[in-house]
Design a protein that fits this description.
- This protein is α/β, with parallel strands linked by helices.
- It has two domains: 354 residues, 3-Layer(aba) Sandwich (Alkaline Phosphatase, subunit A), CATH 3.40.720; 106 residues, Arylsulfatase, C-terminal domain, CATH 3.30.1120.
- 28% of the residues lie in helices and 19% in strands.
- The chain contains 13 helices and 20 strands.
- The strands form five sheets. The protein has a ten-stranded mixed beta sheet, with helices on both faces.
- A hairpin with a 2-residue loop joins strand 18 and strand 19.
- The longest helix has 34 residues.
- This is N-acetylglucosamine-6-sulfatase.
- It comes from Drosophila mauritiana.
- InterPro entries: Alkaline_phosphatase_core_sf, GlcNAc_6-SO4ase, Sulfatase_CS, Sulfatase_N.
């Protein structure tokens, strides 16, 4: 007969094992249009301290497509755009279209986690063409999804079973409070949670919270070497630009200031949610990810303000992660993509990566205890399909409807930021002694662009036509393979 004392020890040991094996919680914070190259993280000092210095800073994180809906779809599915089929922000381009709702949403990250016992929460901008009709999107136990694209006031949220309109509540603050309430409640239960918070900053219309208005009024947009420079070695849409007038540059400066000011509320959101996790004694068992869907340019190569281009301003995104097993102040130089987040999160949740996911987990990188994590060679795919059509014609600008240009506005001096054939695929190559990007455009010229980022970090000189023929052929072959890859064949 077993004695009472040994029995108590045995029970406590069993309870201890259960506690130690508890699956981690996951909090993903996704900003909108936040760059790295133009110091887009400058307003987020506390986020850098809590997540970057408290965990890992990634120095080469990239969007697979420099536009909102395709990038967000890639993050949720772990798939490149040529596989998930969302090519732009329109329903016809696959954004929250029938294919997403029928075929992809039931295979996306939130649904997988939910099916494995995770309590799931979403708050903020979901996909650009989500308008709150029908049932809550699959995979979410608690859903506060914004109707349409980012805005800061006068918006409607789908709050679980109903739609609620808000006139004067600042959206980032409301999302902070909704997420904090969820965390306080979720941490009382044994099941793990997955929470995704997607504030509108730093997307247009660039409206800061009243408490932050004017904080950066003294700041100008960064005058990079490419600022307001027209370069004739770029693809036709960029080289057709003309220098920006002073009035447009003043607008750029104002937008730059306001973009930074909108991010101050996001910084406060991060601090608040980390505080809730700490107060509920859940912080040490929670992975926290901070990233953005794509970058942004303001005046580079005389392009006023937008994304959609294959330059570092538009494709390089912030990525900071803290959580169990991640050494503070880790620096990771290995290239990663937003398509890698779903497989990584599944690895944390002890779930096998489905064969249809194109990304690969970087969980093992995060477990390295050295501050400068060993470097692994990687090639990533960046792809974009131009959105220009007859419907995108703007009669306020002088360009004819038949040109099928897009994103042409008088406030941007009618510089058109997109066109029907601004379509390209790029190989972002980060290897030992090599930091290059190679791009092929599907336009009338089959134009090529390539840059050596070690020698030319601002991408001033296109070296595509100076490469040795064998180099160009090898890049082209690798790029072709990536644009046709699926699942494990994307691991290069």
């Amino acid at each position: 007969m077993i004695g009472l004392a040994p029995l108590i020890v045995l029970v406590l040991a069993c309870l201890g094992n259960t506690a130690s094996e508890k699956l981690p919680n996951i909090l993903l914070i996704l900003s909108d249009d936040q760059d790295v190259e133009l110091r887009g993280m400058f307003p987020m000092e506390q986020t850098i301290q809590l997540l970057g210095f408290g965990g890992a800073l990634f120095h080469n994180a990239y969007t697979p497509s420099p536009i909102c809906c395709p990038a967000r779809t890639s993050l949720l599915t772990g798939m490149y755009a040529h596989n998930h089929g969302t090519r732009n922000n329109s329903v016809s381009g696959g954004c929250y279209g029938p294919h997403w709702r029928r075929a992809l949403e039931p295979r996306a990250l939130p649904y997988i986690l939910q099916q494995h016992g995770y309590n799931t929460f979403f708050g903020g901008k979901y996909l650009n063409q989500y308008w709150g009709a029908g049932d809550v999107p699959k995979g979410w136990n608690h859903f506060y999804g914004l109707h349409g694209n980012s805005r800061y006031y006068n918006y409607t949220l789908r709050e679980n079973t109903g739609n609620v309109h808000y006139e004067s509540t600042y959206l980032t603050d409301l999302l902070r409070d909704r997420a904090a309430d969820f965390l306080r409640n979720a941490t009382q239960y044994s099941e793990p949670f997955f929470a995704m918070v997607a504030p509108p900053a730093a997307h247009e219309p660039f409206t800061p919270a009243p408490r932050h208005e004017g904080v950066f009024s003294h700041v100008e947009a960064l005058r990079t070497p490419s600022f307001n420079q027209v370069k004739q070695d770029k693809h036709w849409l960029v080289r057709a630009a003309r220098r920006l007038p002073n009035e447009t540059i003043n607008t750029i400066d104002k937008y730059f200031q306001k973009r930074w000011e909108t991010l101050l509320a996001v910084d406060e959101l991060v601090v608040n949610l980390v505080g809730v996790l700490n107060d509920t004694q859940s912080l040490e068992n929670t992975y926290i990810i901070y990233t953005s869907d794509n970058g942004y340019h303001v005046g580079q190569f005389a392009q006023p303000f937008d994304k959609r281009q294959p330059y570092e301003t538009d494709i390089n995104v912030p990525l900071l992660i803290r959580g169990p097993g991640i050494a503070p102040e880790s620096h990771i130089d290995t290239a990663v993509s937003l398509v890698d987040l779903a497989p990584t999160i599944l690895a944390w949740a002890d779930i096998d990566t489905p064969s249809y996911m194109d990304g690969q987990s970087f969980h093992e990188l995060l477990l390295n205890k050295r501050r400068r994590v060993p470097f692994f060679e990687r090639s990533l795919l960046i792809e974009y399909w131009g959105e220009g059509a007859l419907a995108t014609y703007n009669p306020e600008c002088p360009w004819p409807e038949k040109d099928r240009l897009a994103q042409c506005t008088p406030v941007a001096d009618c510089h058109c930021q997109d066109s029907w054939n601004n379509t390209y695929a790029c190989l972002r190559n980060i290897r030992h002694r090599e930091d290059r990007i190679y791009c092929e455009f599907r336009d009338n010229e089959n134009f090529l662009e390539a840059y050596d980022l070690q020698l030319d970090p601002f991408q001033m000189t296109n070296i595509a036509y100076d490469l040795l023929p064998i180099e160009r052929a090898l890049y082209s072959l690798r790029l072709k393979n990536l644009t046709q890859c699926s699942g494990h064949s994307c691991f290069v």
